[in-house]
Amino acid sequence: MRAEGVNRKRLALLAALAWLTLGCGSAHDYGPDSPYFRYPEGSRLRLHTALEVPAGWATLRLQHGRSVAFGAVQEQEPHCILEIDSVRPLPQRIEPDRFDIVGVQRSVSDLAAASGFFIPAAHADGDLPSQLFYKTEFRLRSARQPGVRRLLCQHDQLAAGAGLPRHLTLAEIRQTLGERFTLELPPGR
Fold it and tell me: Which has the closest alpha carbon to 166: 75, 38, 35?
């Protein structure tokens, strides 16, 4: 009975991945409401208020328009990770700036975990991943702050009620970043 459930989950996951692969390979021009939207050249990320990367870290997590501590991120909901190029013993400040988006890459990565207090044994004891992150990575560049490297926006698509696995839409990313950032598209987009 358990093997049958695992096989059904595996088939559903493979079907979803096949559907995504076929969808991504087409010549369609998906609009900004689509998780397959192709961010145009000339897109930018504008930071309106200064941010502080905690001491001993090179990343800052953002969710619902706020900075969130590493262990407090609700991974099944959209969240973004801003990354800089160095870890230092003191907090590091990122000043308001406009960052050119010099590349966008989408990926899917899984995480397999051992059974424990926070991980249901049904996922951890099988050969399926316990988390499946759909990631959109924006590589950033600024002449004033060259140490700011990238913004990675993602969510766990194996969470209960996540529906068909997909990448975040432009609107979901903007909502996650809140009023601190503006994800700008070139005029006419």
Answer: 35
78 in Cβ contact with 176 (< 8 Å): yes
Instruction: Give residue for tokens 């005029």.
Output: 187
Q: How far apart are CA 73 and CA 87, in angstroms?
A: 20
The mean pLDDT of the chain is: 82
d(C-alpha 160, C-alpha 147), whole Å:
37
0.90 surpassed by pTM? no
- The domain tally of the chain equals 1
Cα gap 127→51, rounded to integer Å: 40
In this prediction, residue 160 has a pLDDT band, given cuts at 50, 70 and 90, of: low
Does 14 reside within a domain? no
- Between CA 172 and CA 160 the distance in angstroms is 19
pLDDT at site 76:
84
Instruction: Residue 67: give the domain boundaries.
Output: 29-184
Residue with tokens 């207090």: 117
pLDDT tens profile 49-78 = 999 999 999 999 999 999 999 889 988 899
| Residue 104 placed within a domain | yes
Does some domain include residue 13?
A: no
